[in-house]
Write a structure and sequence with these properties.
Distance between the termini: 57 Å
Number of domains: 3
Strand content: 15-25%
Oligomer: single chain
Shape: rod-shaped
Number of helices: 9
Largest sheet: 5 strands, antiparallel
Helix content: 40-55%
Length: about 500
């Protein structure tokens, strides 16, 4: 199955993240709103209960029903220690003590409705058994006033205790026990406060505050969120889609151009670079740099193949000519020249093979090479060189790498110096800091400063008038620098005090 595009994944991911965040925020908002409104209702009930309890201290038992706070539409009661209702607001007029009210479920038929709305009881009557709460509600009521809700505790503690009760309400949201007027049920936060009348009667004051506003506000906010969340998620998905599409448009341009380059094999083409300084622009620049490096590499390879073919053609053609002449006229065979051409051909083939291995990233063998000993070994083998070699300094020191490859570097430098020297060549090995420097100098014409880097290119020879038979193929210095760099060192050309050229090979010393 194909994976979705980046745009689709980005849009879906952003939408999911926003959805999770909004849902979590919605739950937090609703919980905070519900808790805040519940706290407000609880404080309102507590304040009302405290107000009634404070007035009772100046009111005799007979006038408890006339206290302010018992004449409103909110449920309120004053109950003495014997469970007798001394006063109540209109909704609870003639009802049993509030602490005995059970949570009422909405009746499904008229018989259940009658059961849910018990008959009023007079002030002297005990609560009807149908009004008694179940054990759980009785436990909650006990928490409300610490005495089972009947006021048997004679303390005058004004610290309120609250609980939530459900009362039947009419269409206007007012508490009612008339079965014809019951429209539903609503929760009230009920507070209980202990007090005393002027006659010294201990009483419990109950006062309730409706939680309908809380329920309505929570319902409104929830509906708004349920309606707004999908709309907001659609907006987020659409904006993410458009933004991602615009951001990825340059990437599509890069892809198309790369596809065209691959199809045409024209490495001179470049991908478009956006004006913005963002990741896509950096990607385009890096891609163009890669294409430029690839183009240079391919061009270098083409030149290398062409130059190698040209260099190989001369000794092969010369050798073939000599062999053909020898086949027809054996007495005319120049054996020495044939051997010389064969040696040239062998040397060139070896150089090309080494360059191919270096280009393939072959790492030098791990070993320890004493450069002073290597120099002595070479000088001992080159007694027949046309110019004498003067040794200036040979300081001891070992480097890590391939003895064979480093020997090849030293041989190439000495051959180059012998080829261009007038009278002598000098060699020195010095320790300089954490490295070892090998210097090979000649007293020839030297290398112009502008050409000191170009001579390290492959198949480059500065003396255009010199024949190939007198010089090399122009690979010696290129091989020497490549080997030096593979060993973590450098090779550069400088002027010589004798007027010629000095080649400085610097290699890091081998650690202990």
């Amino acid at each position: 199955m194909r994976r979705a595009s980046v745009r689709v994944r980005a849009a879906v991911g952003a939408t999911l993240v926003v959805a999770v965040a909004l849902v979590a925020a919605g739950f937090l908002v609703v919980a905070t709103l519900r808790g805040g409104l519940a706290d407000t209702a609880r404080l309102s009930a507590q304040n009302a209960a405290r107000g009634v309890a404070a007035q009772l201290a100046d009111v005799p038992d007979a006038e408890v029903g006339q206290v302010d706070g018992l004449d409103g539409d909110e449920p309120a009661q004053v109950v003495d220690a014997d469970g007798k209702v001394l006063g109540a607001s209109d909704p609870l007029e003639g009802r049993a003590p509030m602490a005995r009210f059970a949570r009422v479920e909405r009746p499904d038929d008229e018989d259940e409705q009658d059961a849910a709305a018990p008959e009023p009881s007079g002030p002297d009557d005990k609560a009807d058994p149908d009004d008694a709460p179940d054990p759980d509600d009785a436990a909650d009521a006990a928490d409300a006033d610490d005495d089972g809700g009947t006021g048997t505790d004679s303390r005058t503690d004004t610290e309120p205790r609250t609980r939530t009760l459900t009362f039947p309400v009419d269409d206007d949201g007012e508490v009612t026990y008339d079965k014809e007027d019951i429209a539903g049920h609503q929760k009230f936060s009920v507070a209980a406060v202990q007090g005393r009348t002027r006659d010294g009667t201990p009483v419990t004051v109950y006062s309730g505050a409706s939680l309908g506003a809380q329920q309505e506000a929570v319902s409104t906010v929830t509906r708004s969120m349920l309606f707004g969340l999908p709309v907001l998620l659609l907006v987020v998905a659409g904006v993410t889609w458009l933004v991602t599409r615009r951001a990825l448009r340059p990437v599509e341009g890069i892809r198309q151009e790369m596809s065209a380059i691959t199809a045409s094999t024209d490495l001179s083409r470049r991908v478009p670079e956006p004006d913005a300084r963002d990741e896509v622009a950096r990607l385009a620049r890096t891609t163009n740099e890669t294409l430029a490096a690839l183009e240079a590499s391919v061009e270098r390879q083409r030149r290398f193949v062409a130059d190698a073919s040209h260099e190989l053609r001369s000794p092969i053609a010369s050798l073939r000519t000599q062999l053909e002449v020898a086949a027809a006229h054996p007495e005319l065979l120049d054996l020495d020249e044939a051997v010389e051409d064969t040696v040239r051909l062998q040397t060139l083939a070896a150089d090309l093979l080494l360059l191919a291995r270096l280009d393939a990233g072959e790492r030098p063998a791990e070993g320890r090479v004493a450069m002073d000993a290597l120099v002595r070994e070479h000088l001992a083998q080159r007694a027949a060189d046309p110019h004498p070699v003067r040794v200036e300094v040979l300081e001891g020191g070992e480097v890590r790498g391939s003895s064979g490859q480093l020997s090849r570097v030293l041989a190439n430098l000495l051959d180059n110096a012998q080829r261009h020297a007038r009278s002598e060549v000098s060699v020195s090995v010095r320790r300089e800091g954490d490295g070892l420097t090998v210097a090979v100098a000649d007293d020839g014409e030297g290398v112009p400063e502008a050409e000191r880097e170009r001579i390290f290119a492959r198949f480059v020879r500065l003396d255009a008038a010199r024949s190939r038979d007198e010089g090399g193929a122009g690979l010696g210095l290129a091989i020497a620098r490549d080997v030096a760099e593979r060993h973590g060192g450098t090779l550069r050309a400088e002027g010589s005090s004798e007027g010629g050229a000095t080649f400085m090979l610097r290699l890091p010393l081998a650690g202990d």
